[in-house]
Fold this sequence. Notes:
B: 2 strands, flat
Amino acid sequence: MKKWSFVIGSVAFAALLAAGGAQAAEKLRLLTWADYAPKEVVDAFTKETGIEVEITLSNNEEMISKLRATQGAGFDLAQPSQDRITGPQAEFGIYKPLDLSKIDAKLFIGSMLEATKANTTAGGKVYGLPHIWGTDGLVVNTKAAPGVKDYLDLCGPEVKGKASLRAKRPTLIAFAFSMGMNPFAAYSNEKAYSEMMDKVGAKLTECKANLKFFWDGKDALLAGLRAGEVTAAMAWDTGGWKLNSENPEIKFIAPKSGALGWVDTFAIPAKGRADDAAYKWINFNMRPDIAAKVAASAGNFSASQGADKLAAGKLKDQFAESFPLAAIENIKWYPAVPAGLEAIEGKVLDKVKSAN
Amino acid sequence: MTALPSSERSLFAEKLGLFLLLAPAVLWLGVLVILPHVEIAVLSFSERIAPRVYAFGFGNYLEFLGEPIYWRTFARTAFLSILVTLITLVISFPVALYIAKFASGKSKPLLFLMCLIPFWASELVRTLGWMMMLRETGVLSFLLQKAGLASGPVEMLYNDASVVLGLVYGGMLFMIVPLTNALESLETAQIEAGYDLGGSHLTVLRRIIIPHAMPGIVAGSIVVFMLTVGNFVTPVMLGGKNGLWFTEQIYSQFITRFNWPQGSAFGFMLLLLSTVIVWLGLRLTGQGFAETLRKA
Amino acid sequence: MTLVGNGVRGDFMSDSADLALLSVVKEFGAHRAVDSVTFDVAPGEFFSILGPSGCGKTTLMRMIAGFEHPTSGDIRIRGKSMLAVPANKRPVNMVFQSLALFPMMSVGENVGYGLACAGVDKIEAGQRITRILDRVGLAGFEDRPVTKLSGGQRQRVAIARCLVLEPTLVLLDEPLGALDLKLREHMKLELKQLQAAFNTTFLYITHDQSEALVMSDRVAVMNKGRFEQVGSPRELYHNPLTSFVAGFVGDANVWNGSTFGAQATGLGIKLSTGAALVGAGSGSGAVSAYLRPEAIALAAVPGELSSLPNRFAGTVSTVLFDGAASTLVIKAEGFPHLRATLPQAGPLAGIMAGAPIGFGFAPEALKIFPA
Ligand SMILES: Nc1ncnc2c1ncn2[C@@H]1O[C@H](COP(=O)(O)OP(=O)(O)O)[C@@H](O)[C@H]1O
Ligand SMILES: [Mg+2]
């Protein structure tokens, strides 16, 4: 008696689950960065298409790890940076090629779309489309540390014990440029690149005593800058401008050796189940009005054609202050990272982290 | 003695019953503990040759042994974890002794609750709390300056001491509970007899209280050691750029470098470390594993 | 030997005593657990404190051992005040109610614990342990775990553990309480013999009057924190000074009544049930009277008891046969139920229920106390 009721109960429960799954509205599982999918935009999308959006926040490394763990399942759309697509794709095959016919190309800034497509092409197929772009540079409390103009200045006595950076690959690239080398040119030569990274690692190890901490989450860094515990850091432009609005003395500075330009993309995981919804979301997001909202939420710039005209005036002013024309031209855009380089970088970073 | 068929049958039934009784445990062990570890073990012996091409090899372990940063972090984690366990034990023992033997019936639950309260918040929140206390612009630094004990802001975060502090704090409850349990069963008359026969505080502690609490000490130490060695949040957050915990290496191999085989090898080394230390601890204190589990 | 007031023995100077308590009081909050207790114990004496559960015996003993501090009064051992001496420095050892053997130690280690604390070297300690175990009948038990011993053996380890230290005084808190009846009877004798053999002063606590009477040189009867009477077992039995002692020590018929004046042979009282008796004691108005069953003389005809002022006739209502301790329950005009010892050697040994019987007792046997 008992046994039977248990069996019936579990069968009913399973049936309920299955039915629930089938009946639920179409769903888009989005793997993205904080602030890239503001509620307002998601609601508008659901209202228009009837598709629900389930958001998981992440960063480049975690996106790759998550998709790697499931061999590209679990999400329908991801937003890795454009330089981090072909490498992991070659290594783990976590994305599927995009069907460009489903994209409204007119919505994108043409040059950016072409550049991103070129950078994310593997085996003749395109894997990424540009969405949001921005730069990595210096966020400086100009009153406390007026002398910080370049990445290497973070190791100077002026910011002793009050500097911060991320123990991640952009830092290695930035320091290489600041030390007068060109890491992007060395991408194709593993040995040369490895030697270059060793030099950068040595410099960073030496610099470690100057650091307050390696920052990881943006909020911890901003809190440190606000409190004055950190006076200069390598960070994203967004963070700098956000603080600038609160305290005009804190500024985002394009470093002498060049800000690092990044583009976050749309890429479809290899085992995504809702490709149509994904394309709908992409096209929806690239509409100038929507894109302007997303850009405002993220505090960055959109790859949408015409969105900048709708951007808030404040951001434009801040951008103009941080990027004189020469600085814009000096932005170093990341080329795609060849597979294998990340292992070299990772080991250098491990060494830096464990140095005392 | 002649074995009666019926008794044989009942013996068989007994065995079957035992087997059925153990089946869930065996299943649990197999599916949730052994299988994942077998997978990790297999993974740890694979080496990347080219994109999506892997081969069997010991490279990941050789990498561990050959690269000082890895085994140094490993040794450091082991050493600090043992230190944390010992400090936790030394601090928790008087607390547990007080709760078990000296606190009155009414204050006992209250004291226990006080030990428990910090654990209502997640480890992350607790650690953030410590960060607010210890940071340069934090409470402690402020108070020190107010009291005139420091001339400028004092940074107490991002060093080994703050990591040890955070880990000890996080481990205390797991030490106090088994210790209190063990000490509660110690008859008060035995302590008194210890004094009555001429024992000093030290003698009574050493010869009567500690031997009685031994199962609790071992159980608590094992739990605290395991939690400490496998902790991730506390060393990373309180240690900052000098945190250097082995779990961080594992995390970084898995998550930031996508190097699962290397991460697996590291994970296996950590498992080995825990096993060896627990075994040594049991050996040195002459406690049985089963008995310890039972008393804990 | 005379007794004065509240149990103070006149003929001992405190200084020559092994233990002396002077007006010791212990209060727990508003509750007075020990109320102004004064007594002393002579060297080599077996001294018992007898009283009902909760009367303060353990508290008193714990003060002597050093686990409680008296609210007021003084405790002296061989003339030296112990108030400032911690428990582990007092020349006193205790056998706990629960025995409190150390379960993780062997018999030898239990016995050797105190020696180690005292800094006795290993070789000498080993010899002393062997000797004491031999004397308590546990020769060769050194390496046994205490958890594997029988109740009586554990008892002996607990005592050996104290005696090996050659203390001035051994305190024993109801050590036989946990044993079964047979073993308890046996251990009573054994304890007494051990005490005599070691010639150590014993202070023994019990709520069992038989233990106290059998073993002790002197007994203090304690009630509600106070000593009612101190004396030899015989004195307590035959000459109780208070109604509590009369009732607590030994068996007695207890009756209520009131006095009606002095008679030639003693104090006349009339029981509430009607009978008029003559007894020994003082008081006027309401009184209680105590009469031991064995103090009652029996005869087939009342006339045989003519020498006794108290003589009555009744019938046997029940015969309670218990060998030498057999009693009769007698129904008689003017008495509530009455118990009398039935000698198994006499002519009445075969008496049956319903038989007529005469009984009587001397006035000295009927103890009268103000109610
Ligand atoms: N630590 C204490 N706190 C409060 N009351 C106590 C304490 N110890 C004993 N008492 C009280 O004192 C009285 C005497 O107790 P105790 O000496 O143990 O009696 P006994 O040993 O004669 O049975 C009891 O009423 C008991 O409740
Ligand atoms: Mg008692």
